[in-house]
């Protein structure tokens, strides 16, 4: 049995399944990548079911056991096109076969699962460690290229807002890595990269480590080249039904770090935010109800 056939069978028979097997079927249908990659025991834990229930589901559909069901999904995952162009073609095919609503629903379901994973106890512990290192650093250098740049920019922007020393190594004119000439012991590098990893971001992490700075990595795998260098690695999932990886969990991770750093900084952060807001107000940076009314006269 191949994955499309299994998916069709699970969907068509869903209403006739006992309640526990419905829960197992829903897990399989909603988490195809997890089914392919995680152990049966870990899947049962995440689904809130027993491993035996997953086994019964597989046997209900003519498979010897859940490992065989996992193998079906793993084979489908290996057959998924590599690269953006191949996955874009897959997306177009699916759009024609299933329509836009199916893709949209799967996109948001994937994002919800990725964000939920950030609430796991191990993930939360890493966030606390990362926030401590970032808060203790004299200066934090923020480095991220291509799709990772907005996450690095966001951390730098918020650190400035709360009065924490920060440098955005933004690479304008190809000089981003030059900013690391000033990094040293007592500083930290916040480096962001997900597969396919950017060479210069890994180089930046290596430079920071050689100069005695702490390295906090925001990346997508414990096997990422950044994770191997980092003092703390925050892991975010990036796979979606689309051809392009998602950075939404990375943005959420930065927002969490910002909240933790602000709380740790206390009154000094509140004072810095007040000064920042006063300066923005004096410069007329944002529209206010009063300025909007003036504009309509």
TrEMBL record:
Pfam families: HTH_6 (PF01418), SIS (PF01380). Residues 130-267 form the SIS domain. Residues 4-80 form the HTH rpiR-type domain. One of its GO terms (molecular function) is carbohydrate derivative binding. It comes from the Bacteria. Keywords: DNA-binding, Transcription, Transcription regulation. The keyword Membrane does not apply. InterPro entries: Homeodomain-like_sf (IPR009057), HTH_RpiR (IPR000281), RpiR-like (IPR047640), RpiR-like_SIS (IPR035472), SIS_dom (IPR001347), SIS_dom_sf (IPR046348), WH-like_DNA-bd_sf (IPR036388). GO terms for biological process: carbohydrate derivative metabolic process. The keyword DNA-binding applies. This is DNA-binding transcriptional regulator, MurR/RpiR family, contains HTH and SIS domains. It comes from Bosea lupini.
């Amino acid at each position: 049995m191949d994955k499309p056939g299994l998916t069709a069978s699970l969907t068509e028979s869903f209403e006739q399944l006992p309640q526990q097997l419905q829960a197992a079927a829903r897990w399989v249908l909603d988490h195809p990548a997890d089914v392919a990659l995680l152990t049966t025991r870990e899947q049962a834990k995440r689904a809130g079911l027993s491993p035996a229930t997953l086994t019964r589901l597989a046997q209900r559909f003519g498979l010897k056991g859940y490992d065989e069901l996992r193998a079906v999904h793993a084979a489908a995952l290996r057959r998924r096109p590599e690269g953006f162009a191949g996955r874009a073609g897959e997306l177009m095919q699916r759009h024609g076969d299933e329509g836009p609503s199916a893709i949209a629903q799967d996109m948001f379901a994937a994002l919800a699962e990725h964000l939920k994973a950030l609430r796991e106890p191990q993930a939360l512990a890493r966030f606390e460690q990362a926030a401590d290192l970032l808060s203790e650093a004299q200066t934090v250098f923020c480095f991220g290229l291509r799709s990772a740049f907005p996450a690095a920019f966001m951390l730098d922007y918020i650190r400035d807002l709360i009065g924490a020393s920060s440098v955005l190594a933004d690479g304008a004119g190809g000089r981003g890595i030059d900013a690391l000439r000033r990094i040293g012991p007592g500083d930290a590098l916040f480096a962001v990269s997900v597969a396919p990893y950017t060479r210069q971001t890994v180089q930046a992490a290596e430079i920071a480590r050689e100069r005695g700075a702490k390295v906090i990595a925001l990346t997508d795998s414990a096997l990422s080249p950044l994770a191997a260098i980092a003092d703390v690695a925050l892991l975010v999932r990036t796979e979606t039904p689309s051809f392009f990886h998602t950075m939404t969990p990375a943005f959420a991770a930065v927002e969490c770090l910002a909240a933790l750093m602000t709380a740790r900084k206390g009154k000094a952060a509140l004072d810095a935010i007040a000064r920042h807001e006063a300066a923005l107000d004096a410069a007329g940076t944002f529209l206010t109800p009063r300025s909007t009314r003036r504009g309509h006269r």
